[in-house]
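Example record for the data management plan.
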Amino acid sequence: MKKKDKVQFVMDTLEALYPEVDIPLQHKDPYTLLIAVLLSAQTTDARVNTITPLLFARADNPYDMVKLSVEEILEIIKPVGLAPTKAKGIYGLSQILIEEHNGEVPQSFEALEALPSVGHKTASVVMSQAFGVPAFPVDTHIHRLMARWGLSDGSSVVQTEKDAKRLFPKERWNKLHIQIILYGREYSPARGLDLSRDMITARLGNKKSEIRDKKK
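Corresponding structural encoding:
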């Protein structure tokens, strides 16, 4: 199958499975989305969604967040991974938003990635889901599946993002990256590959990846 046909099969299958999607992290505006995405690093979305209501009940905007101490933020978010670093990042970026952006989340990759604890993936999620700017955030699911489907070589998330942006139409990026994540969670997990359920990998699968994944 030619690569363009693989790409079309992926898009058609995902659209049939997930015609309507929403980001799995609970939020109400760009600021709460930014904080939720920051918290989600090395932690499941489900766990983040149990923590953010507690945090946002105390502070759902940068002005209220800086009224808390780093220690108070840490106490609330302690169940998530890397909590001490994330608590400092949340406090620090809230200060910067107030001092440099009038309390608003900036609408540029450069400004977002300049904030404490905000990397390219976090900035991409905020730009795509809060502001509608085309982006293709690559998480572990997307990185795994792009290689598993023979659409990227799996060498790095940077390469995976480049390949995804090259192969998929720009107007599909913001929806498609969520669709791939949902598919990875439901049908194509990192361990225990089951080709009877994983219809995309069964059709497109990179044979070396399949053999490796079956052994896990």
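Summary line stored alongside the record: Residues 149 and 204 are 5 Å apart (CA to CA).
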